[in-house]
Amino acid sequence: MSSEGGGKKFEFRLLGALEVASGGAVLPVGGPRQRALLAFLLLNANEPVKREALIDALWGDDPPGTAQNALQVAVHGLRKLLDAERIETVGDGYRLRVEPGELDVDSFLERHEEDPAAALELWRGPALLGVEAPFAEGEASRLEELHLVAVERRIDLQLQNGEQELLVPELEQLIAQHPYRERLRGQLMLALYRSGRQAEALDAYRDARRMLLEDLGVEPGPELRQLEGAILRQDPELTPPERVRPVKGNLPAPATALVGRELELAAVTGLLRRSDVRLVTLTGPGGTGKTRLALEAAWELARSLPDGGYFVDLAPLEDPADVAATIAHALPLGEGRGSTLDNVKEALRERTTLLLLDNFERVDDAAPVVSELLAAAPGLRVLATSRSVLRLSGEHEYPVPPLRIPTTAEARRVDALAQNEAVSLFVARAEAARHGFRLDADNAAAVADICVAVDGLPLALELAAARVRQVLPAELAARLGERLAVLTEGPRDRPTRHQTLRATIEWSHDLLADDERDLFADLGVFAGGCTREDAEAICAASAEALERLADRNLLQRDESRYSMLETIREFAVERLTAGGHADELRRRHAERFAALAEEAGAALWDSVQGPSRAEWLDRLEIEYGNLRAALAWADRAAPELGLRIAVGLFEFWLSRSHLEEGLGWLDRALSHDRAGGGPLRAQALHSAAFLLFELGDFDRGSAWGDESLELYRALGDPEGIGRTAHLLAQAASALGQRERAMAYAEESLRLARELGHVRGLIVSLREVGLLAAEGGDGDRSVMLLAEAEQLARAHGDDAALADVLLARGRLALDAGDSEEASRLAASSIALYRAYGTTAGIAWAVLILALAAEAAGTCERAARLFGAAEALRETSGTQLLGADAGVIDAALNRVRAALGDEAFMAVRAEGRSLTVEEAVAVALADDPEA
To answer: What is the pTM (predicted TM-score) of this model?
Structure first.
């Protein structure tokens, strides 16, 4: 279900949990209000919807006064998610443009009557799951009714095809869920009668009549009564039709149900039903479930083909010359004249059938055999599974991805977690392995961790679920750092290569040439992937060699970046460690990423251009796995290198709220620094002191800050002196030592002006301005903060500007101007969000909460106080004594105004918000922001 037109393509899913996908990835839809808005616009796709109708849909008859603003915020969020042109402003309303095939509801309705089975493939139900709004229940009921009608139509078709015996258990279950639905009752009666169970069919009628009379006070309808009469007289018209012939071929019956592959199954079968597609190859690394998906697709397709479908297992083969004979054996063919390939061509020439060629990677030199068969047999379709494409004309590759793993937000809610694909498979297999197992609040976090640890690989999930027989999920999750050793003991009736995760990866590894194996092992040095340039510099990898590994699905390719699934990387690391040159490779890796950290650290302090700062932070976020790996190796093998990396990452750790982790690395690096006295140690002490202050440890932070300042003075480094004096000014201010703080701040400001360092000047102006306000010099405070804001805007330093606006907001709040404080704090939030600075967002939300309390909007204040608490915990920032007193007093006033029960409920609601949801709530009263 993707757009055929230009622009970005989406898949909109309402028939189950609300989801939006693009490029195979599920996108984060946002908070409850934004989800509800998207659902309502999708239900009215391509039609203009007035704002009043949207407000009614989202809030019902009694919308809050802020509804108009909140609606604008939600529309803005959806435009960012979907591209702005998708949501058009039409008069006093909006229209969501949806292309043909993008919305699952549209596709469902198109197939509903003609092909109910195909329509039901799209159903992930219950409909509109997770959408909470007044309109949702009615719309969900409407869609559920359509779903049930499609089920009934599909059952009618199955009854016509003589499948009555198969339908009885399903109908009994459906009737238990919908006891008053007479059509289902009649279908059960007919299925029982046609199965030779006339007495039970009449009992089914009596059960229906008794329930309708007792519960509803009505008799069964005329159709049900007429069916009873026909059964009593054994009407010939009730005679079952001739049973539809069984599917021809040798397709093995799956031992377990397919879980979590509805979209992939629909895509693969849809491809092979096209008249212009005759060869589809499912590709992907070992363990992604290619064979299981292919088998399900083969069964579905074979039912509609006169000559059915045939399964050909190529896994045991070593010689590509044996492929034709293996196909001949599977068909099966008798003894014939001429070559085996000629026999197969002749046998398939007049057939309309499907060949499922499994594990083609073992014999990929035999790919021309497939081309010859397709040329000789016009009615033949081929579905192949392989770890790389066959490279044939007319081939359509379908990469089979791992199952979608749970997001952090899903992991916090059991109901959302239960809808996740990877979790669904794990739970289904765990229920089979251990009687009574179920997903609940006690094991949800561990189950989510397991699914993430194994990359959503179906094989790994099944192996992990099997271990639930012996250990609890929490214990299993803790042990999955060594996945290859833990994930063993698969079912004995599975191929050996599928009984352990290690065997599955070895299967692919053994197919590589020697130089490819060496490169595969060397690439294990990268944690979290690498660019082509990094692979060339560290592993001497050529672009062609990287592409070959990507073609074999041992590397994942994303634009110019390559990565390994962690399960595969663990295997590569084992090979790297055993290879004898691991330390040399890890040294080159650490030196390259030390250079990156140093360059980034300098740019993040010196650069005043907003976009470049955001780009540096994002680049470090992408490479953080490699930087951590480099730090870990340097910690034991090259301490000075570790110190360089740690100093370079300081601004990143501060901006992206890795405070405790960053402090830990700096602490270890400083402990290894025996010489001391150099500029690198001074920088490290400054960085560690800053992080300690952020974490609320002023004693140790002051000691390290003092040592840093002493070193900088000894080195004669004015910039280092200014930076550290600024840091000590902030610490002294937090401890209530105003005179000491002002002395440090004035020194920092003087040095920044002398050096002409713009960033240093902005932060120093901000600090002196705040201290001036505290000392009662309001005029100087206003002047200094205005200069800081002007400099930040003039030089495009949005990160520094956010801090200045936040400082002005705090002063406005102290002056009793809650409206101005709210405006300034809201303006800073958008800037902090651009850099992913959660700590800054937390402080801005806190100011908005205090402003809301001062303005008397206590419910909003309670919600924002809860959100600020959660954001501070996420970022690791601490409240200072004076701030804590102000906040506690405000909280007590809000509690008194709302009452304990309401206060606790609203505050808890705020704590449960994600960062994006908290930002949306915080900005809801500020349409411009």
So the answer is: 0.60
